[in-house]
Amino acid sequence: MSSEATTRNIVIIGGGIIGCTTAYYLSRHPQFASSSTKITLIEASKHGIAQGASGKAGGLVAQWAYPKELVKVSFPEHVRLAEEHNGAERWGWRFVACGSWEGRGEDIDEGTGTGVGAGGERKSLEKTFGLDAPTHLAETGLPADLNWIKDELTSAYSPMAPAGATAQVHPYLFSRSMLDLARERGVELVSGKVTAIDIDKTADRRVSGVTYTPCDGGESRKIPATHVVLAAGVWSRQVLPAVPVVGTRAHSITIRPPPSAAPLAAHVLFTEIALPGAHASPEIYARPSNEAYCCGPGDDSSVPDTVDDVEVDEAACESIRAHVASISPVLRAGTVQRRQACFLPVVSTGGGPIVGEAASIAAGLLIATGHTCWGISNAPGTAKAIAELIMDGKISCADLQKLRPARFL
Ligand SMILES: Cc1cc2nc3c(=O)[nH]c(=O)nc-3n(C[C@H](O)[C@H](O)[C@H](O)COP(=O)(O)OP(=O)(O)OC[C@H]3O[C@@H](n4cnc5c(N)ncnc54)[C@H](O)[C@@H]3O)c2cc1C
User: Fold this and answer.
1) pLDDT tens digits for 200-254?
2) Using a 6 Å CB cutoff, which residues line ligand 1?
3) How far apart are CA 369 and CA 350, in angstroms?
4) With 0-12 CB in 10 A as exposed, 13-18 as middle and 19+ as buried, what is 152?
5) Ligand 1 mean position to 157 CA, how many Å?
6) Which of 67, 181, 212, 216 to pair with 101, CA 20 to 30 A apart?
7) Domain of 105, in residue numbers
């Protein structure tokens, strides 16, 4: 990709974690201050950024995530970002123990459901796929400080990674902070839905801008661009049909324990709960804000027009609550604060994410999507690579040949 032009008009489509973090890395690139570079991020939700998966994910940052090429850059970048911008205060950054828990649930009514949303077939979120064999470290028994699981119900517990290899962020706060820091350097946020990527077919088939419909209604408008970054998650395909990204919907809830309870110890658990005639496997994340984030399995229901139209199935949320309550008295006594659903972007042909320039479609068109269950973990590496590609003309932080759009489009 040519880096000759020093005047750049960069438009990022999508204010999820990938778009917001890309805005941050572009605005921090050494060439940003000395060049004439304008960056605009455009987000389609009426409610602002990170209303989809990037605001509703668990927030685990793991060295066992995949693909390794991105993890190697992303994990240390997460550590650096947290140190540089006080991530502990700003976005709930901390190292956290992560374990696999097996046991039985108690006091649960029959027919509490599977956690799968109505209208969809069960799908795995595939988060444990990156673990090396043997899958887990040796069984240790329940950690002494793990105060939110009933000991007697436990049949096995194994750490999933050594200390220091798993951390967490609050994904909405991280995305928000990335964009806030980028806006301090002049990045502009536009509220609108991109309907087309404009390509100048007369010259060198280069992007010339985007066309969008403002969220507050009104006529369709254009923003000129020398570079367009498509980071619209599962909606990337709506904007560019050649992008092979589909969605997996998953439900989640957050629970605040009763005020009288001790603070939830810092653990993330991947559970396998045996229930009368059934089985459930919610992921449970204790957060520094003293809430538990709990998510159920994925489903294959169809992706709606915008993030604001994603349907939440209350029965799926209640089912997740009941499963978690069956192993945790303190969370049973707690108050459910959020019941939500979102779509994680999956590359339908396997592999991914897709990261790089889609030169066969247009010069200056970059794609950064299809991060499956690891978009929170892998956002910094993706964003750093895209920023290097635009500002330096090549990616230096990693070898991302395997992820280049030419392999997928
Ligand atoms: C239940 C669940 C738990 C998860 N847990 C983790 C975890 O613990 N760790 C981890 O690393 N990952 C996790 N993930 C995965 C992670 O959430 C995603 O990979 C990541 O959020 C994808 O980010 P994104 O920016 O690509 O997409 P999104 O978050 O979907 O953002 C895309 C944005 O683009 C906007 N947009 C779409 N179309 C347009 C348009 N035409 N014009 C303008 N804007 C548009 C959308 O409104 C949206 O805001 C989880 C996902 C789920 C569902």
Assistant:
1) 988 689 999 999 999 999 899 999 999 999 999 999 999 999 999 999 999 999 9
2) 13-19, 42-45, 51-54, 57-60, 193-194, 231-235, 239, 250, 252, 295, 307, 342, 344-345, 369, 371-377
3) 13
4) exposed
5) 30
6) 67
7) 95-164+246-345
- Beta-sheet pairing, 267-275 with 97-104: parallel
Distance between CA atoms of residues 349 and 238, nearest Å: 17
**Could you tell me how many residues make up the chain?**
409
| CB count in 10 Å sphere of residue 272 | 16
- Among 12, 17, 98, the mutation site with the greatest number of ligand 1 atoms within 8 A of its Cβ is 17
Asked if residue 85 is part of any domain, the answer here is: no
* Amino acid, res. 294: C
- Kindly report, residue by residue over 242-289, the tens digit of the pLDDT: 999 999 999 999 999 999 999 999 999 999 999 988 899 999 999 999
Find out whether 70 and 42 touch, Cβ atoms under 8 Å: no
Residues 161 and 346: their CA atoms lie apart, in Å, by 25
Last residue of a domain, one of 345, 370, 389: 345
Q: Do 314 and 211 belong together in one domain?
A: no
Q: Check: CB of residue 11 under 8 Å from CB of residue 228.
A: yes
Closest ligand 1 atom, residue 168 Cα: 8
Identify the domain boundary among 345, 374, 399: 345
CA 390 to chain centre: 23
- Give distance in angstroms: CA of 386 to centre of ligand 1: 17
Q: If you search the block for the tokens 């190697």, which residue do you land on?
A: 72
Least confident of 42-51, 95-104, 112-121, 254-263: 112-121
Question: Half-sphere exposure of residue 29, counting CA atoms within 13 Å on the CB side?
Answer: 29
Token reading at 59: 């927030």
* Side chain identity, residue 310: V
Q: Are 342 and 52 in contact (CB under 8 A)?
A: yes
Based on the fold, state whether residues 294 and 309 are members of the same structural domain: yes
User: Does 192 lie in the same domain as 329?
Assistant: no
Q: Residue 37: in which H helix or E strand, if any? A: strand 36-43
CB 369 within 8 A of CB 351: no
* Distance from the alpha carbon of residue 12 to the mean position of ligand 1, in angstroms: 14
Under a CB-based contact definition with an 8 Å cutoff, are residues 398 and 72 in contact? yes
